[in-house]
From TrEMBL:
Chief site of localization: cytoplasm
Native species: Acer yangbiense
Protein name per the record: Uncharacterized protein
Keywords noted in UniProt: Cytoplasm, Cytoskeleton, Microtubule
Keyword Cell wall biogenesis/degradation found: no
Organism domain of life: Eukaryota
Family statement: Belongs to the MAP65/ASE1 family.
Transmembrane intervals: none
Length: 97
């Protein structure tokens, strides 16, 4: 445990690039999710959806008002979650049409 290891500048640079890439991906997913959630809320309003109907997505829609840096819950910006919201938007669009 007392052994010390030096980390090369190249390793630090690579890790910095990975972190920047992940932050960018998080920003992109947050923007995509926000657009879908905002559409979902508009649709709920058009359909006069009850609070109970809306509550199943409350955790996800709370992301709309969050800054990207404050979105820390594991998986909340996963492609699966975003796809679920997009599917619900599509379903509601058919009801509204």
């Amino acid at each position: 445990m007392g052994e010390s290891r030096d980390v090369s500048q190249d390793t630090v640079d690579k890790l910095t690039k990975v972190i920047q890439t992940l932050k960018l991906r998080k920003q992109q997913r947050a923007s995509e999710a926000s657009r879908s959630f905002e559409t979902l809320i508009v649709q709920w309003n058009q359909l006069k959806a009850s609070i109970e109907e809306q509550q199943r997505s409350v955790g996800a829609t709370s992301l709309i008002s969050s800054s990207v840096d404050k979105v820390t819950r594991w998986g909340c910006l996963s492609p699966h979650v975003i796809e679920q919201v997009e599917n619900e938007v599509k379903m509601l669009e058919t009801w509204i049409s």
